[in-house]
Write a structure and sequence with these properties.
Number of domains: 3
Helix content: over 70%
Number of strands: 2
Largest sheet: 2 strands, antiparallel
Strand order of the largest sheet: 1-2
Shape: globular
Order of helices and strands: HHHHHHHHHHHHHEEHHHHHHH
Structural class: mainly alpha
Distance between the termini: 24 Å
Length: about 400
Amino acid sequence: MAADSPREVGERIAARRRARRLTQVQLANAARVSYATVRAVERGARQPSDDVLEALAAALGIDAARLRIGYRGTERRVHAALPELSAVLAGYEIPQGPPTAGPGELAAAVKTAADWRLGAQYGRIASVIPGVLADAIRYVHTEPAAEQPDAARMLASAARTGDAIAYKYGAHDLSARLIDLMRWAADRSADPLVTASAAYVRTELFFSARAHAVGLAALEQAIDAAPAPTSRLKAAARGALHMRAAVIAGRAENVAAADTHLDHARALAALVGREGTYLGTSFGPDSVRIHEVSLAVSLGPRHVERALQAAGQWKPPGSLPAERRSGYYIELARAQDWAGLPGDAFESLKVARAAAPQHTREHPWAREVAAGLRRHYRADAELLTHFAQWIGAV
């Protein structure tokens, strides 16, 4: 098919790069591929692999399907990785020999995968996480006692990254097992901050089961056990738990608890002072503002004005992780749809897609809003149909 030829793909990449006012060297650096690769791909001299295509698409801020027509590589790679992750988890408590990578190499691989998680690069995660997780498990079992805390922290991070693709692609049983592994690693680390991070991620189980009241109770226990906010890192860990508690309290229809937790999160964000990623979770004033909207949406359509008021004319800064920005616009789109603002809702979905296409495509609320808009909103009908087809709403 001509549209899928290396020449056509290369021309699209070059056009997008020029529109972003990037040189080939800048694109190569942003995508973490070689300059020679970018040059060859743009000339049509080679067809980019799935990994290279997704890396270039991420650096250009678009979905890989816009560069190669009909591209479904992300879904294929994630679904191929899930059984491999399941096999790795089958006996994680049983020693299975030394890791294949040294500590420094493994630490770098875990960090890179965690960065991809924050950037919603699920296809890239899928290509490496089974091997990274297997090595992190072996590392915990083989390192001497003095190195155990660091090894366990590394394992907790790797398990969280694996959970990102399991949870978002609907493999909730596998997600639960990965969270169990994260909690096991947190216990071995003897680090209360890693335990707090595991409690934050564990909330996914309660969201999936719609067990919101018990999820709130679990988070409140974790908050009580978390270290006092005597440093920026400790304040961020506690603040993230309060943010999460506010949202799940909203879904439990406990407005008083939700507001209390959001107030605590706001105060801790002021103490932290600046937005940042702490223990793998974004926290700071911008994240708290995003959660104000998230809380209002969690409370349901009767609180739509609260959601729109919290959003106002504010936009999340581009420095925030892509997944968090995308999530904000998806939730804002839901509120705008409830408020009878279909044009605004569609614009928010498009911004979410531009921020993190893989995250937006797999988000059930984005799919739900897109399907509803396509049925009832007549303006932009052709664009909406294309969007709905892309997201799988038709």
